[in-house]
Amino acid sequence: MLQILxxxxxxxxVLFVAIHTAYCSIFVITLLLLxxxxxxxxxxxGTVWCSPMVILSGTKPEMSGVENVPKxxxxxxxxxxxxxxxxxxxxxxxxxxxxxxxKASLFKIPLFGRAMKLSGTLPITxxxxxxxxxxxxxxxxxxxxxxxxxxxxxxxxxxxxxIKQFKSGPFIxxxxxxxxxxxxVICGMDRVLPKGSILINRKSWTRKVGIRFLPxxxxxxxxxxxxxxxxxxxxxxxxxxxxxxxxxxx
Length: 250
Hints:
Blueprint: H1 2-33, H2 38-56, E1 59-64, E2 75-79, H3 86-93, E3 99-103, H4 112-119, E4 122-124, H5 129-144, E5 148-151, H6 169-177, E6 180-187, H7 189-192, E7 207-213, E8 217-218, H8 227-249
Parallel strand pairs: 1-7, 2-5, 2-6, 3-4, 3-5
Antiparallel strand pairs: 6-7, 6-8
Helix pairs in contact: 1-2, 1-4, 2-3, 5-6
């Protein structure tokens, strides 16, 4: 019975997410055009837009390591990525606001794309490395002002239960911006919304998803020539944590 109810709920959520995202986008656009305090937009994005989607989907976060998130400086979340729900889930769970990197094509979506642009989301053109690094360079001033960001070092959403190789771009960004990176391991989200599906949590009424904020690494102290070594060290720490979490959430 619960599985049938979960499927019905997932159908409702398709409509809800579309309408909810549209009106949240309108509010965020309005706030930012009126030059409202940044904290207002942060509240709307994290609490009003993202949290209802997570709660209504029956997704139950189990968190640890939030004390590893820097409180008084810019930072970069490096999160494992397998689902469109990863970013709303991270907004719902994080103790600090952030802006994320999104593929450039998403900025063409009416209202949502405009809201992303005005709110400072980073447009990532994956096939154009030069454009990506220009975006990162322009964001360095925002990091210096204390802003946080989130990028998927795997490059895009993965399929399967193995962490992909990490891209160098986010690490070069962190070194140049002299900011700490916080590896974030999310496990179980592909059971909530797998790649290629639009039905959220259609097979179960509730589902636990693990999120671990690993100890931060101060990339401002890393010479650029050591980037590849540090990148692999970070990946190994993520893989180790993910393998442990798989026993619980997959």
